[in-house]
Amino acid sequence: MPVTQSFNSRRGTGNSGGELTEPPPERLAHLPARDKLERLLQVARGHEKALILTHDNPDPDSLAAAVALAHLLERKAGLKARVGYGGIIGRAENIAFVRVLRLPISHVSEIDFDEYDLFGLVDTQPKVGNHSLPAKLEAHLVVDHHPLRQESLEAPFADVGGDFGATSTMLVEYLRAARMEPSVEVATALFYGIKADTRDLGRETTPVDVDSYLWLFPRMDKTLLAQIEHPELPARYFQLYHTAYERAKVYGTAIVTDLEEVYSPDMVAEVAERLMFLEGMKWSLAFGTYRNQLFLSLRVKDRRMNAGRLIREICEDYGGSSGGHGSMAGARLPLSGKLAQRKALKRELVSKFLEAFGVADERPVSLLYAQDS
Predict the structure, then answer these.
(1) Is residue 11 situated within a structural domain?
(2) Which of 211, 229, 247 is the last residue of a domain?
């Protein structure tokens, strides 16, 4: 469906998981938006149909940026563009986000990749394992605010990293450079993408994020935004939080919870985020199982640590995919074997995280019985 209706960062530059330790020459992230836009359009022109993919189980930032990029390609490069995603959209706010804004996106199960001659990845990068671009196909366009990985440099166009708290901010830069006015729906999507990824401009936010947020504010619809931020919630949402609190353990300044089987992978990140609000916490780790995969989400308040680098160092030997940046990161690991083996894997991972947190010697206390300080 047509869309017509837009690194290495200061968050850390480790070399784990293919991240570059030194910026290569001619880094697109350091060029003015107009120069980046022109290079983007140079790569896109001459193609007929573009498929823009988000990361699997996409969040609002990924979806908004992908829709905006498809919109930009249609208007400025003259090709037809479609947005696709793998996994599921399961969190209530994210379902409302797509429904209320009527975002033209499709699950990859509905897409014939042979119909497209241009492929883009948004809010993810090649070879990281958390998107649905087939291995036989190469990405032409890569746009992501996470730290640059070596494989991304093989793409004809790779705008990765830089001082951005959200990929949606990068697309706002493109739209403004192209002098394009987004529709109300696209503007609201980008606004919420920035708002959600930076936690209301309170997490890893840069001046460019603030400027983009303010540029979008008069262009987005506040009523639509309210419908997204305050959706009706299914009973299983509250049941999952009951499990999260019941199983949560506090280790000094860290809190860890096993959600067991979850109905949506993105709920793991939501729980990790929520538990970070517990008084005195510097670390929050949540994990849960979904369709024979273990999803982990990490939140960090200690500025001396980089969550993305840490989760890659711990999880890289277990297969799957992992990534993130300064204060937040996630991983998806394959699960096999019997229940006892899966429990052993969880214990092993938790032990490694607690060691990295510096709280391995702390006595665990159930969250339900933890005393206020």
Answers:
(1) no
(2) 229
The verdict on 212 and 103 lying in the same domain is yes
Tokens found for residue 275: 């538990």
- Rounded Cα distance, 271 and 240, in Å: 9
The answer to whether residues 91 and 63 touch, using CB atoms and an 8 Å cutoff, is no
Rounded Cα–Cα distance for residues 147 and 168 (Å): 15
Going residue by residue through the chain (373 aa), what tens digit of pLDDT does each one get? 434 332 223 333 333 344 443 334 346 877 899 999 999 999 999 999 999 999 999 999 999 999 999 999 999 999 999 999 999 998 899 999 999 999 999 999 999 999 999 999 999 999 888 899 999 999 999 999 988 888 898 999 999 988 899 999 999 999 999 999 999 999 999 999 999 999 899 887 899 999 999 999 999 999 999 999 999 999 999 999 999 999 999 999 999 999 999 999 999 999 999 999 999 999 999 999 999 999 999 999 977 778 989 999 999 899 888 888 778 899 999 998 889 999 999 999 999 999 999 999 999 999 988 766 5
